[in-house]
Automatic annotation (TrEMBL):
Organism (species): Rhizochromulina marina
Single GO MF descriptor: methyltransferase activity
Keyword annotations from UniProtKB, A to Z: Methyltransferase, S-adenosyl-L-methionine, Transferase
UniProt superkingdom: Eukaryota
Protein name, as recorded: Calmodulin-lysine N-methyltransferase
Gene3D superfamilies found in the cross-reference section: Vaccinia Virus protein VP39
A GO cellular component entry from the record: nucleus
Stretches that traverse the bilayer: none
Record SUPFAM superfamilies: S-adenosyl-L-methionine-dependent methyltransferases
Family label: Belongs to the methyltransferase superfamily. METTL23 family.
Amino acid sequence: RRVLEVGAGCALPSLVAAKVGAGHVCVTDRTDSALVHAQLAAERNGFDHMSFQAILWGVFDEPLLEVGDVDVILCADCFYTSLDFDSLLATIHWLLLPSSAEDEVGAERPVQPRLKSCLVAYQERSTSRSIRHLLAKWNLVAMSLESSTARQDRDAEATSEDSVHMFEIQLADDGGGSAGGVRTLE
């Protein structure tokens, strides 16, 4: 499986993915300094199946195109600044789209879409911020990865300042399902 981490920073999720057997891990961040540190960590751990790419969320230029096709996107604590939410979800949407490939004669042809997903860890910093309207804008749906029991246990022990949520983002169902929104696993 090919894994990509957006906004990697120190790239801990990428390093874990490499350790547990991802076929290839692409580490992305907007700053070269973060990528240099992530590359050092990969080298120190002996991971040779990782690549590093500077990308800007919402900018669909050569660096993003060089990323290639991915199966899983990791997004750990990237929903930090509200001004970045739209461009981050635009980038996630683009990465989740079905890919195409070229046959031997160079003609582009559609490829069977694989189920791609973006796994998100998000620390709730304010109850007044939401990505629900942006999920709908980008034809995405988010599903909580926490059971109701786990949420109750966590909520009983945690305050809103240290509440961490985990969810999965996918393209919304085009076959009559709800376009954009949030679903809960029960």
